[in-house]
Amino acid sequence: MSDSRIRIRALAHGGDGVGNLVEGEGPTWFVPGALPDEVVDAQEVRAAKRFVHGRLVEIVERSPHRVEPPCPYAATCGGCQWQHVDPLKQPEFKARIVADQLRSVSTGVRVGFAGPAEGYRRRARVHYRRSESGFSLGFHAERSREVVDVSRCLVLDPALDVAVQRLRTVAGLLPSSGEILGLSDGKQAILGLPKVKPEPEILEALRAVLDDTLVGIEVRGGRQQGHVGKRVLDVDGTALWPAVRLGSFSFGQANAAGNKSLVDHVVKQADAGGLKILELYAGSGNFTRALARTAQRVWASDTDHDAIRKLQGLAKSHELPINAKRQSATNLLPKLAESKSTYDVIVLDPPRTGLGKEGMAAACRVATQRIIYVSCDPATLARDLAVATSRGFDVVDLTVFDLMPMTSHVEVVATLRARSAE
Ligand SMILES: C[S@@+](CC[C@H](N)C(=O)[O-])C[C@H]1O[C@@H](n2cnc3c(N)ncnc32)[C@H](O)[C@@H]1O
Protein backbone atom coordinates (compact mmCIF):
# COMPACT_ATOMS: atom_id res chain seq x y z
CA MET A 1 0.00 0.00 0.00
CA SER A 2 1.40 3.43 -0.89
CA ASP A 3 2.06 6.06 1.76
CA SER A 4 -0.21 9.07 2.26
CA ARG A 5 1.14 12.55 2.88
CA ILE A 6 -0.51 14.06 5.96
CA ARG A 7 -0.35 17.56 7.44
CA ILE A 8 -0.60 17.28 11.25
CA ARG A 9 -2.65 20.05 12.86
CA ALA A 10 -3.07 18.91 16.49
CA LEU A 11 -2.51 16.19 19.05
CA ALA A 12 -5.32 13.84 20.01
CA HIS A 13 -6.20 12.71 23.52
CA GLY A 14 -3.74 9.82 23.89
CA GLY A 15 -0.93 11.75 22.17
CA ASP A 16 -1.23 10.77 18.47
CA GLY A 17 -0.81 13.44 15.79
CA VAL A 18 -4.10 14.33 14.07
CA GLY A 19 -4.24 15.56 10.50
CA ASN A 20 -5.53 15.32 6.97
CA LEU A 21 -4.20 14.63 3.49
CA VAL A 22 -2.00 17.46 2.21
CA GLU A 23 -3.80 17.24 -1.12
CA GLY A 24 -7.43 16.41 -1.65
CA GLU A 25 -10.24 15.44 0.66
CA GLY A 26 -10.32 12.45 2.95
CA PRO A 27 -10.81 11.13 6.44
CA THR A 28 -8.99 12.35 9.55
CA TRP A 29 -5.70 10.58 10.21
CA PHE A 30 -4.26 9.62 13.61
CA VAL A 31 -0.50 9.11 13.46
CA PRO A 32 1.44 8.13 16.62
CA GLY A 33 4.78 9.93 16.88
CA ALA A 34 3.77 12.86 14.62
CA LEU A 35 3.66 16.42 15.98
CA PRO A 36 1.58 19.51 15.16
CA ASP A 37 2.73 21.49 12.08
CA GLU A 38 4.64 18.48 10.72
CA VAL A 39 4.06 16.99 7.29
CA VAL A 40 4.56 13.22 7.41
CA ASP A 41 4.24 10.22 5.16
CA ALA A 42 2.11 7.60 6.89
CA GLN A 43 0.87 4.14 6.07
CA GLU A 44 -2.65 2.99 6.82
CA VAL A 45 -2.83 0.46 9.68
CA ARG A 46 -6.61 0.35 10.07
CA ALA A 47 -9.45 2.45 8.79
CA ALA A 48 -13.02 3.26 9.78
CA LYS A 49 -15.56 5.41 7.93
CA ARG A 50 -14.23 8.79 9.05
CA PHE A 51 -10.83 7.91 10.58
CA VAL A 52 -7.60 6.26 9.55
CA HIS A 53 -5.01 5.06 12.06
CA GLY A 54 -1.60 5.25 10.44
CA ARG A 55 2.03 4.40 11.08
CA LEU A 56 4.63 7.13 10.73
CA VAL A 57 6.92 6.26 7.82
CA GLU A 58 8.84 9.50 7.23
CA ILE A 59 8.90 13.06 8.46
CA VAL A 60 8.79 15.41 5.48
CA GLU A 61 8.55 18.71 7.39
CA ARG A 62 9.83 18.57 10.95
CA SER A 63 8.46 20.35 14.03
CA PRO A 64 10.96 22.57 15.87
CA HIS A 65 9.67 20.84 19.03
CA ARG A 66 10.88 17.39 17.97
CA VAL A 67 13.99 16.26 19.87
CA GLU A 68 16.27 13.24 19.91
CA PRO A 69 14.77 10.87 22.56
CA PRO A 70 17.06 10.85 25.63
CA CYS A 71 16.05 7.26 26.42
CA PRO A 72 17.87 4.49 24.52
CA TYR A 73 14.73 2.29 24.71
CA ALA A 74 12.38 4.93 23.23
CA ALA A 75 11.97 3.13 19.89
CA THR A 76 10.65 -0.08 21.46
CA CYS A 77 9.38 0.64 25.01
CA GLY A 78 5.75 1.73 25.30
CA GLY A 79 6.21 3.25 28.77
CA CYS A 80 6.70 6.77 27.37
CA GLN A 81 5.00 7.97 24.19
CA TRP A 82 6.59 11.42 24.10
CA GLN A 83 10.34 10.91 24.41
CA HIS A 84 10.60 12.70 21.03
CA VAL A 85 8.82 15.85 22.25
CA ASP A 86 10.73 18.79 23.76
CA PRO A 87 9.99 18.45 27.51
CA LEU A 88 9.56 22.23 27.80
CA LYS A 89 6.77 22.09 25.21
CA GLN A 90 4.93 19.05 26.60
CA PRO A 91 2.81 20.91 29.21
CA GLU A 92 1.57 23.33 26.53
CA PHE A 93 0.70 20.43 24.20
CA LYS A 94 -1.25 18.79 27.05
CA ALA A 95 -3.13 22.02 27.74
CA ARG A 96 -4.06 22.16 24.04
CA ILE A 97 -5.30 18.54 24.11
CA VAL A 98 -7.50 19.40 27.09
CA ALA A 99 -8.77 22.58 25.41
CA ASP A 100 -9.68 20.59 22.28
CA GLN A 101 -11.54 17.97 24.33
CA LEU A 102 -13.37 20.67 26.31
CA ARG A 103 -14.20 22.91 23.33
CA SER A 104 -17.75 23.39 24.56
CA VAL A 105 -16.46 24.99 27.79
CA SER A 106 -15.45 28.56 27.14
CA THR A 107 -12.82 28.69 29.92
CA GLY A 108 -9.10 28.97 29.09
CA VAL A 109 -6.80 26.14 30.15
CA ARG A 110 -3.88 27.03 32.44
CA VAL A 111 -0.78 24.96 33.21
CA GLY A 112 -0.54 24.48 36.98
CA PHE A 113 2.55 22.28 37.17
CA ALA A 114 5.45 21.34 34.94
CA GLY A 115 8.54 19.67 36.41
CA PRO A 116 11.65 17.67 35.52
CA ALA A 117 11.10 15.05 32.83
CA GLU A 118 13.52 12.51 34.31
CA GLY A 119 13.66 10.67 37.65
CA TYR A 120 10.23 11.93 38.72
CA ARG A 121 8.12 8.78 38.71
CA ARG A 122 7.83 7.48 42.27
CA ARG A 123 4.87 5.14 41.58
CA ALA A 124 4.91 2.56 38.78
CA ARG A 125 3.59 -0.75 37.53
CA VAL A 126 6.42 -2.67 35.87
CA HIS A 127 6.04 -6.02 34.07
CA TYR A 128 8.20 -9.13 33.93
CA ARG A 129 8.23 -12.23 31.75
CA ARG A 130 10.47 -15.28 31.79
CA SER A 131 10.96 -17.07 28.48
CA GLU A 132 13.48 -19.33 26.81
CA SER A 133 15.44 -16.25 25.80
CA GLY A 134 15.73 -15.03 29.41
CA PHE A 135 14.05 -12.72 31.91
CA SER A 136 12.57 -9.41 30.72
CA LEU A 137 11.79 -6.62 33.17
CA GLY A 138 10.27 -3.30 32.11
CA PHE A 139 7.21 -1.77 30.47
CA HIS A 140 5.10 -3.24 27.68
CA ALA A 141 5.97 -2.35 24.09
CA GLU A 142 3.51 0.10 22.50
CA ARG A 143 0.13 -1.60 21.83
CA SER A 144 1.57 -5.01 22.76
CA ARG A 145 1.91 -7.38 25.72
CA GLU A 146 5.60 -7.94 24.99
CA VAL A 147 7.82 -6.84 27.90
CA VAL A 148 10.73 -4.66 26.79
CA ASP A 149 13.75 -5.49 28.96
CA VAL A 150 15.16 -2.30 30.45
CA SER A 151 18.19 -2.16 32.73
CA ARG A 152 17.65 1.48 33.67
CA CYS A 153 14.56 3.64 33.28
CA LEU A 154 15.16 7.39 32.96
CA VAL A 155 11.75 8.51 34.20
CA LEU A 156 11.63 6.33 37.31
CA ASP A 157 12.64 7.85 40.61
CA PRO A 158 16.22 6.52 41.06
CA ALA A 159 15.43 4.64 44.32
CA LEU A 160 12.47 2.90 42.65
CA ASP A 161 14.56 2.07 39.57
CA VAL A 162 17.25 0.44 41.73
CA ALA A 163 14.64 -1.44 43.79
CA VAL A 164 12.87 -2.88 40.73
CA GLN A 165 16.16 -4.06 39.22
CA ARG A 166 17.02 -5.94 42.43
CA LEU A 167 14.19 -8.38 41.71
CA ARG A 168 16.22 -9.86 38.83
CA THR A 169 18.12 -11.88 41.44
CA VAL A 170 14.91 -13.75 42.43
CA ALA A 171 13.55 -14.10 38.87
CA GLY A 172 13.69 -17.90 39.07
CA LEU A 173 11.23 -17.96 41.97
CA LEU A 174 8.64 -15.65 40.39
CA PRO A 175 5.75 -16.83 38.18
CA SER A 176 6.56 -16.93 34.44
CA SER A 177 4.99 -13.49 34.02
CA GLY A 178 3.55 -10.82 36.27
CA GLU A 179 3.63 -7.29 37.58
CA ILE A 180 5.70 -5.37 40.10
CA LEU A 181 4.03 -2.44 41.86
CA GLY A 182 6.49 0.09 43.20
CA LEU A 183 6.44 3.17 45.41
CA SER A 184 9.33 5.40 46.45
CA ASP A 185 9.55 8.22 48.97
CA GLY A 186 12.62 9.56 47.19
CA LYS A 187 15.11 7.67 49.34
CA GLN A 188 13.58 4.26 49.94
CA ALA A 189 11.26 2.07 47.90
CA ILE A 190 8.77 -0.70 48.57
CA LEU A 191 7.50 -3.22 46.03
CA GLY A 192 4.35 -5.31 45.68
CA LEU A 193 4.02 -8.60 43.83
CA PRO A 194 0.45 -9.54 42.89
CA LYS A 195 -0.37 -13.21 42.20
CA VAL A 196 2.59 -14.42 44.28
CA LYS A 197 1.74 -16.61 47.27
CA PRO A 198 3.63 -15.94 50.51
CA GLU A 199 5.41 -19.33 50.55
CA PRO A 200 8.28 -19.48 53.10
CA GLU A 201 10.84 -20.09 50.34
CA ILE A 202 9.73 -16.95 48.46
CA LEU A 203 9.65 -14.77 51.57
CA GLU A 204 13.13 -15.92 52.56
CA ALA A 205 14.50 -15.11 49.08
CA LEU A 206 12.76 -11.72 49.07
CA ARG A 207 14.11 -10.87 52.51
CA ALA A 208 17.61 -11.50 51.17
CA VAL A 209 17.22 -8.81 48.46
CA LEU A 210 16.23 -6.05 50.87
CA ASP A 211 18.82 -3.35 51.46
CA ASP A 212 18.97 0.35 52.39
CA THR A 213 17.04 1.32 49.24
CA LEU A 214 14.60 -1.57 48.74
CA VAL A 215 13.14 -1.67 52.24
CA GLY A 216 10.06 -3.84 51.86
CA ILE A 217 8.21 -6.27 49.59
CA GLU A 218 4.59 -7.37 49.91
CA VAL A 219 3.17 -10.39 48.10
CA ARG A 220 -0.48 -11.21 47.54
CA GLY A 221 -1.65 -14.48 46.06
CA GLY A 222 -5.33 -15.37 46.12
CA ARG A 223 -6.49 -14.51 49.63
CA GLN A 224 -3.03 -14.90 51.12
CA GLN A 225 -0.80 -11.96 51.89
CA GLY A 226 2.69 -11.71 53.32
CA HIS A 227 5.53 -9.24 53.47
CA VAL A 228 9.16 -8.77 54.35
CA GLY A 229 10.50 -5.46 55.68
CA LYS A 230 8.27 -2.37 55.46
CA ARG A 231 4.73 -2.61 54.07
CA VAL A 232 4.07 1.15 53.91
CA LEU A 233 5.82 4.47 53.36
CA ASP A 234 4.69 7.86 54.68
CA VAL A 235 4.76 10.37 51.82
CA ASP A 236 3.90 13.97 50.98
CA GLY A 237 3.73 15.43 54.49
CA THR A 238 4.20 19.21 54.64
CA ALA A 239 4.40 21.82 57.40
CA LEU A 240 0.64 22.31 56.90
CA TRP A 241 -0.71 18.77 56.66
CA PRO A 242 0.34 15.24 57.64
CA ALA A 243 1.84 12.60 55.35
CA VAL A 244 -0.36 9.92 53.80
CA ARG A 245 0.47 6.30 54.43
CA LEU A 246 0.72 4.31 51.19
CA GLY A 247 1.47 0.66 50.49
CA SER A 248 2.81 -0.72 47.22
CA PHE A 249 -0.72 -1.88 46.30
CA SER A 250 -2.29 1.53 47.10
CA PHE A 251 -3.16 4.18 44.54
CA GLY A 252 -0.72 7.09 44.75
CA GLN A 253 0.00 10.02 42.42
CA ALA A 254 3.12 9.27 40.37
CA ASN A 255 4.91 12.58 40.85
CA ALA A 256 5.69 13.90 44.34
CA ALA A 257 6.41 17.54 43.37
CA GLY A 258 3.46 17.60 40.99
CA ASN A 259 1.17 16.12 43.63
CA LYS A 260 2.10 18.87 46.07
CA SER A 261 1.11 21.44 43.50
CA LEU A 262 -2.11 19.51 42.72
CA VAL A 263 -3.13 19.31 46.39
CA ASP A 264 -2.38 23.04 46.89
CA HIS A 265 -4.57 23.84 43.89
CA VAL A 266 -7.49 21.65 45.01
CA VAL A 267 -7.36 23.19 48.50
CA LYS A 268 -7.39 26.70 47.01
CA GLN A 269 -10.26 25.97 44.63
CA ALA A 270 -12.32 24.20 47.30
CA ASP A 271 -11.82 27.14 49.70
CA ALA A 272 -13.05 24.78 52.40
CA GLY A 273 -12.84 27.09 55.47
CA GLY A 274 -15.77 26.24 57.77
CA LEU A 275 -17.58 24.31 55.02
CA LYS A 276 -19.11 20.83 54.72
CA ILE A 277 -17.09 18.92 52.14
CA LEU A 278 -18.05 15.68 50.41
CA GLU A 279 -14.99 13.96 48.96
CA LEU A 280 -15.45 11.05 46.54
CA TYR A 281 -12.70 8.72 45.32
CA ALA A 282 -10.61 9.88 48.28
CA GLY A 283 -8.09 6.99 48.23
CA SER A 284 -5.80 7.09 51.29
CA GLY A 285 -6.57 10.77 51.93
CA ASN A 286 -4.28 12.70 49.57
CA PHE A 287 -6.68 15.67 49.39
CA THR A 288 -8.67 14.83 52.54
CA ARG A 289 -5.89 15.62 55.04
CA ALA A 290 -5.39 19.04 53.43
CA LEU A 291 -9.09 19.91 53.08
CA ALA A 292 -9.72 18.85 56.69
CA ARG A 293 -7.32 21.48 58.01
CA THR A 294 -9.91 24.23 57.58
CA ALA A 295 -13.18 22.49 56.67
CA GLN A 296 -15.98 22.08 59.18
CA ARG A 297 -15.80 18.37 58.29
CA VAL A 298 -14.87 16.19 55.29
CA TRP A 299 -17.04 13.18 54.51
CA ALA A 300 -14.67 11.03 52.44
CA SER A 301 -15.29 7.75 50.67
CA ASP A 302 -13.61 5.26 48.36
CA THR A 303 -14.23 1.63 47.41
CA ASP A 304 -10.72 0.51 48.44
CA HIS A 305 -10.97 -1.07 51.87
CA ASP A 306 -7.28 -0.73 52.61
CA ALA A 307 -7.18 2.94 51.59
CA ILE A 308 -10.16 3.80 53.79
CA ARG A 309 -8.58 2.03 56.76
CA LYS A 310 -5.41 4.09 56.25
CA LEU A 311 -7.46 7.28 56.00
CA GLN A 312 -9.36 6.46 59.18
CA GLY A 313 -6.02 5.89 60.93
CA LEU A 314 -4.70 9.23 59.66
CA ALA A 315 -7.85 11.09 60.81
CA LYS A 316 -7.60 9.52 64.26
CA SER A 317 -3.89 10.03 64.83
CA HIS A 318 -4.02 13.70 63.74
CA GLU A 319 -7.49 14.41 65.20
CA LEU A 320 -8.79 15.70 61.88
CA PRO A 321 -12.54 16.29 61.24
CA ILE A 322 -12.87 13.45 58.74
CA ASN A 323 -15.55 10.78 58.40
CA ALA A 324 -14.11 8.09 56.11
CA LYS A 325 -16.28 5.28 54.80
CA ARG A 326 -15.93 2.52 52.24
CA GLN A 327 -18.58 3.36 49.67
CA SER A 328 -19.07 3.54 45.91
CA ALA A 329 -19.49 7.11 44.62
CA THR A 330 -21.92 6.02 41.94
CA ASN A 331 -24.17 4.37 44.56
CA LEU A 332 -23.83 7.15 47.11
CA LEU A 333 -24.58 10.22 44.97
CA PRO A 334 -28.08 9.23 43.72
CA LYS A 335 -29.03 8.31 47.31
CA LEU A 336 -27.86 11.68 48.63
CA ALA A 337 -29.69 13.50 45.84
CA GLU A 338 -32.90 11.58 46.48
CA SER A 339 -32.80 12.30 50.22
CA LYS A 340 -32.10 16.00 49.43
CA SER A 341 -28.83 15.91 51.41
CA THR A 342 -26.48 18.77 50.52
CA TYR A 343 -22.80 19.66 50.98
CA ASP A 344 -21.18 23.03 50.31
CA VAL A 345 -18.43 21.58 48.11
CA ILE A 346 -17.84 18.22 46.40
CA VAL A 347 -14.27 17.18 45.58
CA LEU A 348 -13.91 14.14 43.35
CA ASP A 349 -10.99 12.34 41.72
CA PRO A 350 -12.35 9.35 39.77
CA PRO A 351 -10.41 6.83 37.67
CA ARG A 352 -10.36 7.22 33.86
CA THR A 353 -13.99 6.23 33.47
CA GLY A 354 -15.00 9.46 35.21
CA LEU A 355 -18.11 9.94 37.32
CA GLY A 356 -20.66 9.30 34.55
CA LYS A 357 -23.72 11.26 33.47
CA GLU A 358 -26.06 9.98 36.17
CA GLY A 359 -23.55 10.54 38.97
CA MET A 360 -22.76 14.03 37.68
CA ALA A 361 -26.44 14.96 37.53
CA ALA A 362 -26.80 13.80 41.15
CA ALA A 363 -23.63 15.70 42.20
CA CYS A 364 -25.19 18.90 40.80
CA ARG A 365 -28.16 18.43 43.16
CA VAL A 366 -25.96 17.66 46.18
CA ALA A 367 -23.32 20.45 45.87
CA THR A 368 -24.62 23.92 46.76
CA GLN A 369 -21.49 26.01 45.99
CA ARG A 370 -18.68 24.27 44.09
CA ILE A 371 -17.55 21.00 42.55
CA ILE A 372 -13.82 20.40 42.17
CA TYR A 373 -13.34 17.64 39.62
CA VAL A 374 -9.82 16.10 39.34
CA SER A 375 -9.58 14.07 36.16
CA CYS A 376 -6.97 11.94 34.41
CA ASP A 377 -9.09 11.63 31.26
CA PRO A 378 -10.18 14.79 29.43
CA ALA A 379 -12.69 12.83 27.28
CA THR A 380 -14.74 11.52 30.21
CA LEU A 381 -14.31 14.90 31.93
CA ALA A 382 -15.83 16.60 28.84
CA ARG A 383 -18.81 14.23 29.00
CA ASP A 384 -19.39 14.96 32.71
CA LEU A 385 -18.87 18.73 32.43
CA ALA A 386 -21.52 18.89 29.70
CA VAL A 387 -23.99 17.47 32.24
CA ALA A 388 -22.94 19.97 34.92
CA THR A 389 -23.20 23.01 32.65
CA SER A 390 -26.74 21.99 31.70
CA ARG A 391 -27.63 21.62 35.39
CA GLY A 392 -26.80 24.96 36.89
CA PHE A 393 -22.98 24.97 37.10
CA ASP A 394 -20.36 27.04 35.26
CA VAL A 395 -16.80 25.90 34.69
CA VAL A 396 -14.76 28.75 36.16
CA ASP A 397 -11.26 27.25 36.09
CA LEU A 398 -9.43 24.54 34.14
CA THR A 399 -5.86 23.79 35.17
CA VAL A 400 -3.58 21.13 33.72
CA PHE A 401 -0.92 19.36 35.81
CA ASP A 402 1.86 17.62 33.91
CA LEU A 403 2.41 14.85 36.45
CA MET A 404 3.77 12.38 33.87
CA PRO A 405 6.29 14.11 31.57
CA MET A 406 7.44 12.08 28.52
CA THR A 407 4.02 10.44 28.38
CA SER A 408 0.77 11.79 26.96
CA HIS A 409 -1.00 11.34 30.32
CA VAL A 410 -2.60 14.48 31.61
CA GLU A 411 -4.20 15.47 34.89
CA VAL A 412 -6.72 18.30 34.82
CA VAL A 413 -8.71 20.00 37.55
CA ALA A 414 -12.04 21.63 36.68
CA THR A 415 -13.63 24.02 39.15
CA LEU A 416 -17.40 24.34 38.79
CA ARG A 417 -19.45 27.03 40.50
CA ALA A 418 -23.19 26.82 41.10
CA ARG A 419 -25.01 29.67 39.34
CA SER A 420 -27.38 29.78 42.32
CA ALA A 421 -24.41 30.59 44.61
CA GLU A 422 -23.32 33.69 42.62
C1 LIG B 1 -7.44 8.43 40.77
S1 LIG B 1 -7.57 7.57 42.31
C2 LIG B 1 -7.64 8.93 43.41
C3 LIG B 1 -7.27 8.67 44.83
C4 LIG B 1 -6.93 9.91 45.69
N1 LIG B 1 -7.83 11.00 45.46
C5 LIG B 1 -5.50 10.34 45.49
O1 LIG B 1 -5.26 11.47 45.03
O2 LIG B 1 -4.58 9.56 45.83
C6 LIG B 1 -9.16 6.94 42.19
C7 LIG B 1 -9.71 6.26 43.41
O3 LIG B 1 -11.05 5.87 43.11
C8 LIG B 1 -11.35 4.67 43.82
N2 LIG B 1 -12.55 4.12 43.16
C9 LIG B 1 -12.66 3.45 42.00
N3 LIG B 1 -13.96 3.22 41.72
C10 LIG B 1 -14.70 3.80 42.71
C11 LIG B 1 -16.09 3.97 42.94
N4 LIG B 1 -17.01 3.47 42.11
N5 LIG B 1 -16.49 4.66 44.04
C12 LIG B 1 -15.57 5.19 44.90
N6 LIG B 1 -14.23 5.06 44.73
C13 LIG B 1 -13.80 4.39 43.64
C14 LIG B 1 -10.06 3.89 43.76
O4 LIG B 1 -9.99 2.97 44.82
C15 LIG B 1 -9.00 5.01 43.87
O5 LIG B 1 -8.62 5.19 45.22
What's the structural blueprint in terms of helices and strands?
Blueprint: E1 4-11, E2 17-21, E3 28-31, E4 39-47, E5 51-61, H1 90-101, E6 109-113, E7 123-131, E8 134-138, H2 158-166, E9 177-184, E10 189-194, H3 200-209, E11 214-221, E12 224-229, E13 232-235, E14 244-247, H4 256-270, E15 276-280, H5 288-291, E16 297-302, H6 305-317, E17 322-326, H7 329-338, E18 343-348, H8 357-366, E19 367-375, H9 378-389, E20 393-401, E21 411-418
Parallel strand pairs: 3-5, 6-20, 10-11, 15-16, 15-18, 16-17, 18-19
Antiparallel strand pairs: 1-2, 1-4, 2-3, 4-5, 7-8, 7-9, 9-10, 11-12, 13-14, 19-21, 20-21
Helix pairs in contact: 7-8, 8-9
Bound molecules: S-adenosylmethionine.
Folded structure, characterized:
This protein has 422 residues and is α/β, with parallel strands linked by helices. It folds into three domains: 1-64, OB fold (Dihydrolipoamide Acetyltransferase, E2P), CATH 2.40.50.140; 98-116 and 255-421, Vaccinia Virus protein VP39 (Rossmann fold), CATH 3.40.50; 123-233, OB fold (Dihydrolipoamide Acetyltransferase, E2P) (Beta Barrel), CATH 2.40.50.1070. 23% of the residues lie in helices and 33% in strands. The chain contains nine helices and 21 strands. It has helices spanning 90-101, 158-166, 200-209, 256-270, 288-291, 305-317, 329-338, 357-366, 378-389, and strands at 4-11, 17-21, 28-31, 39-47, 51-61, 109-113, 123-131, 134-138, 177-184, 189-194, 214-221, 224-229, 232-235, 244-247, 276-280, 297-302, 322-326, 343-348, 367-375, 393-401, 411-418. The strands form four sheets. It has an eight-stranded mixed beta sheet, sandwiched between helices. Strands 8-7-9-10-11-12 form a six-stranded mixed beta sheet. It binds S-adenosylmethionine. Residues 251-253, 281-283, 286-287, 302-304, 307, 328-330, 349-351 line the site of S-adenosylmethionine (SAM).
